[in-house]
Design a protein that fits this description.
The protein is mainly α. 55% of the residues lie in helices and 0% in strands. It is elongated, with a radius of gyration of 13 Å.
Length: 62
């Protein structure tokens, strides 16, 4: 499952480590946020499984 559907990420941004991603985001590069989300998508999905939203679905929590 891709939480950020339809977003293409440049190859050079995919090779950044977490610290470099945070630094780039702090400098105003909003594209790197998607890199971080895609990188840790499995962890985010694991955490979301524990919660539910009355009247909503899993995608709402994501």
């Amino acid at each position: 499952m891709n939480m950020v559907a339809g977003v293409e990420i440049r190859e050079e941004k995919m090779t950044l480590n977490d610290e470099e991603i945070v630094q780039a985001f702090q400098k105003g590069d909003e594209d790197v946020f998607n890199v971080l989300i895609n990188k840790d998508e499995y962890l985010i999905c694991l955490k979301v499984k524990r919660y539910f939203l009355l009247g909503g679905d899993r995608e709402d929590l994501l």
